[in-house]
Design the sequence.
C-alpha cells in the first residue's frame, strides 16, 4: 500500500515569507503528526491531528499552525519565516495515534531552507 | 535537560564488528520505548517497541533490550547496509500519546 506522501520535498524561502506543507497519510490512518528535525535539536513534536481536530500540540510559537481535512490529509503552515525555521519537516501517520504500539509511519519529509 | 539521551552520537564499525547503542531516559512511568532507523534523506522507519524491563525484541542483526532506566540496541555482525541513524523514543504513561525522541546515534559500517 502507498506510504505517507509529503509535498513539496524541497523548498527555499526567504525570511518573512510563509510556507504551506502537505501530507497525505496512509489510507485508513486517521492520526497525522508533524515533527521538525534539525541537527541541533533532533526530532521535535509540532502537533497531532485526529479526525480533523488538533489533539496535541508541542512547544512551538503560534507561527506554526496546521489543519486536517475530512480525508485525513493534513497541511502545516509556517508564517513569518525565520532563519531558524530551516529544517526537515516530517509527517507521520498512524491508525489512531501512537497509543501503546509506538508505531508511526513517517513520510520522507519536506526540506525547508530559509534564506 | 533531555529526557532521552542516546550514546554515542556517532559510531564507526568495521563490517562484522558487533556493538551496542545506548538509550537512557530520566522519566518515570514509562509506557513504552521505541526504536527507529533513519536513512539519509528519508523519514524514520519503525523497528521495535519495548514495554517492560527485561523485554527483548529481535529483527535480523538487531536486538533491542530494556532495563528500568535504559535500552540497548545490539548490532551483531553488522553490514554496510546497516549504516543509518538510530533513534529511540519514550512514551510516558498518564500523559498524551506523543513520544519524546532522542537525538539519535549515527552508525557507519565500513566494508
Sequence:
Amino acid at each position: 500500500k502507498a506510504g505517507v506522501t509529503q509535498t513539496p520535498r524541497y523548498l527555499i524561502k526567504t525570511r518573512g515569507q510563509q510556507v504551506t506543507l502537505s501530507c497525505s497519510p496512509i489510507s485508513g490512518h486517521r492520526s497525522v503528526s508533524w515533527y521538525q528535525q534539525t541537527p541541533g535539536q533532533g526530532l521535535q513534536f509540532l502537533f497531532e491531528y485526529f479526525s480533523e481536530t488538533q489533539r496535541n500540540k508541542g512547544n512551538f510559537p503560534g507561527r506554526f499552525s496546521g489543519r486536517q481535512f475530512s480525508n485525513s490529509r493534513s497541511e502545516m503552515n509556517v508564517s513569518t519565516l525565520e532563519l531558524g525555521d530551516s529544517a526537515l519537516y516530517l509527517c507521520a501517520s498512524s491508525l489512531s495515534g501512537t497509543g501503546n504500539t509506538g508505531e508511526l509511519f513517517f513520510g520522507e519529509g519536506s526540506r525547508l531552507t530559509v534564506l | 535537560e533531555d529526557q532521552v539521551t542516546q550514546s554515542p552520537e556517532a559510531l564507526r564499525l568495521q563490517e562484522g564488528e558487533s556493538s551496542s547503542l545506548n538509550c537512557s531516559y530520566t522519566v518515570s512511568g514509562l509506557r513504552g520505548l521505541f526504536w527507529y532507523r533513519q536513512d539519509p534523506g528519508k523519514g524514520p522507519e519503525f523497528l521495535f517497541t519495548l514495554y517492560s524491563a527485561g523485554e527483548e525484541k529481535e529483527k535480523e542483526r538487531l536486538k533491542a533490550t530494556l532495563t528500568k532506566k535504559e535500552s540497548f540496541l545490539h548490532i551483531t555482525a553488522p553490514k554496510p547496509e546497516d549504516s543509518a541513524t538510530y533513534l529511540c523514543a519514550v512514551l510516558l504513561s498518564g500523559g498524551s500519546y506523543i513520544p519524546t525522541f532522542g537525538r539519535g546515534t549515527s552508525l557507519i559500517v565500513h566494508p
User: Anything to note?
Assistant: The mean pLDDT of chain B is 92. Chain B touches chain A at residues 31-34, 41-46, 49, 51, 87, 89, 91, 96-104 (CB under 8 Å).
